Amino acid sequence: MLYGADYNPDQWPEDVWDDDVRLMQEAGVNIVSLGIFAWSRIQPTEDAWDFAWLDAVIDKLHAGGIAVNLATATASPPPWVSKTYPETLPANESGASYWPGSRQHFAPSSPIYRRLAGELVRRLAERYVHHPAVVMWHVGNEFGCHLWMDFSDAARDAYRGWLENRYATVEALNQAWGTSFWSQRYGSFDEIFPPRLAPYSHNPSSMLDWRRFTSDMLLECYLMEREILLEAGATQPITTNFMGPFKPADYRKWAPFMDVIADDCYPDPANPNRVRDAAFQRDLARSLKPGAPWLLWEQATDAVNWRPANPGKRPGALVAETAQSIARGADGIMFFQWRQSRAGSEKFHSAMLPHAGTETRTWDAVTELGARLAALPELPTPGRDAQVALVFDWENWWAVEERDHPTEVDYLALVLEWYGAFHARGIQVDIVGPEEVDHAYDLVVAPALYLLRDEGASALARFVDDGGTLLTGPFTDIVDAHDQFRAGGFLTQLGPLLGLRFEDFGVLAGLSSGGSGVGALSADAVQAARDAASRGTVTFELDGVEQSGRLVAETVHAAGATVVAAFSSGPQAGAPALTRHRFGSGEAWYTATQPVSNGASAGGPSADALDAVVAAVVAASGVRPVVADLPAGVEAARRGDLVTLINHGDARVEIALDGTDAETGVAVERVVLDPQGVAFVSAPAATSDPATPRARATASATHS
């Protein structure tokens, strides 16, 4: 188990470095990420290089038995870059420059930035690629974290080239973007600009490509540095740090180029859904590279500094949050940062070694955690332990949240609601793209899959035909990969699978934002309209209980599907609200509204409409929880034979589980956990129940 933090010795005098190494050993640290923001120290001017201090630090760490994850230091160019090469600066929607004085003040597509960054990486690689302390390479840092989009001239030129490479001809681009609308037809690629500030909505197909381009430019920066390291002879793993469900970068397309997935996760202590949200992020990190451990590259020991209010962690939460990462596949636990900064924007951000020193609860917590991690046995490789896959797709995220739709959809929030219903029931979930759905799952949930590529639709159809259960609902199968409607309307790909014909969206409540199309209502009026829309609900009856739906009450017609529940209020009263349809060896469920969720927490089902729908589908698919009958507030996750139990509640609990305590080797039948308590139990998974629909279909296929 890797254990450590970002280390920034360039912020401190040399007489502190030896003390750092000694205290790292005391805390159980065995690796540090070094030099992430050290470009100005390594290269103080364009013609001057200073590696002596870095040589000394690396040698001290190595002598102390501490490995180095060496950063390429390209995340924050020094002031001389901006002064000498102002064309490397990014720009906002108006074309005005972002200026230095913060970080990430570079245009990712700038050839000059890439040349300067590449030279820095070459120098670092030549000097340290064979150093025995260097066991990993950290490229850049949190690509795009603060600069979500760059509208500079460098981006303009790169965007035109990217589009020409994608479409070959401008006529193909015109077709893909539907530019006959609003007289947008282009005569050449040189007529195309980034979607800078405009009087009204941009072409949604162009916005989709712009987001693809933005993600690709960030990825190109990573790949450039990776290639330099490889050319220099690097054999160590090369990666960069992701940020969970980060909208600007399509991490699913990045993942193949990461030797190991690394992720930064900062649950908000004030967020009542922090356990659910963090679990989703950790499941996403594991799912990006199936069958391999990942690394938690950053978390906080206590309070952060960037939220409006920054409460610290409650006692025991550090271990509980760390255990959640380990349970869901992490083999490395890291923090930002080792020693708390004295100056700068992050001086209030907690660290392993706080300003108050070693006689603090933070220091006690990190040293106790280090000892506990060091005592863990070798952990099993994360496997295909989940029976359920949740479809989460970046291109769909970009498209479904574009302007000028029937209603606004917060895609991530909606996905988290569905995820939460399974998390609350202790059911393990993988987070996959639609094309990644396969027969290894029993149940697939695909919320608001508005943009559905042909390959994804085919994968979902194969999955159901092969015996799986699919659950999907509103705003699914609406547009193609260019954000255009297909011939025939909506549900053209999945309609036969679902046994449905789609007629209309049936948006619930809400007010117009202004008929003139130029923002006729004030900001307060627009917000009032959104609030009204959020209050709009419809009812449907499921198993004799009246439930509520929101967003829409779609008009769908059963074309072979069985109506499980019908709307009991609103214009669609009597029409299908929830359906199921046999297709091949499996079945597909559809909900024509978004079931209202009351917000479930770990350790028991929520009494809400969304959970009621999930309960029905879980029963039909035969999906089981990791551990049955979990007390409220308890989270369970499986990693091969290792089951991790975490008590996020406020009361002591007992959980029945036969196995062996992975830390002590003692056999257990019941696990007792205090609040924030954690147990690692070796408990091999039971064999699949042959009575489940999926198992029967698989057995039938194998026999035939």
Describe the structure.
This protein is α/β, with parallel strands linked by helices and 704 residues long. Among the domains are: 388-621, 3-Layer(aba) Sandwich (Rossmann fold); 634-682, Golgi alpha-mannosidase II (Immunoglobulin-like). Helices cover 31% and strands 18% of the residues. A nine-stranded parallel sheet has the order 5-4-3-2-1-9-8-7-6, with helices on one face. Helix 5 runs parallel beside helix 8 and helix 10 (274-288) crosses helix 14. The longest helix has 28 residues, at 204-231. It starts with a strand and ends with a helix. The model is unreliable at 511-521, 600-606, 687-693 and 695-704 (pLDDT under 50).
How much beta, percentage-wise?
A: 15-25%
CATH-level-2 architecture of the domain at 388-621: 3-Layer(aba) Sandwich
Tell me the strand order in the biggest sheet. 5-4-3-2-1-9-8-7-6
Beginning-to-end CA distance, first to last residue: 45 Å
If you compute it from the alpha carbons, what radius of gyration comes out, rounded to the nearest whole angstrom? 26 Å
CATH superfamily of the domain at 388-621, by name, is: Class I glutamine amidotransferase (GATase) domain
CATH topology of the domain at 388-621: Rossmann fold
* Low-confidence regions: 511-521, 600-606, 687-693, 695-704
Task: Produce the secondary structure layout.
Layout: E1 2-7, H1 17-27, E2 31-34, H2 39-42, H3 52-63, E3 67-71, H4 79-84, H5 111-128, E4 134-138, H6 153-167, H7 170-177, H8 204-231, E5 238-239, E6 241-242, H9 251-254, E7 262-264, H10 274-288, E8 294-298, H11 317-327, E9 330-335, H12 361-375, E10 388-391, H13 394-400, H14 411-424, E11 429-432, E12 443-446, H15 454-465, E13 469-472, H16 495-498, E14 500-504, H17 523-535, E15 537-542, E16 545-550, E17 555-558, E18 562-566, E19 576-583, E20 586-591, E21 594-595, H18 609-621, E22 634-639, E23 642-647, E24 653-661, E25 667-673, E26 678-682, H19 693-703
Parallel strand pairs: 1-2, 1-9, 2-3, 3-4, 4-5, 6-7, 7-8, 8-9, 10-11, 10-12, 12-13, 13-20
Antiparallel strand pairs: 14-17, 15-16, 16-21, 18-19, 19-20, 22-23, 23-26, 24-25, 24-26
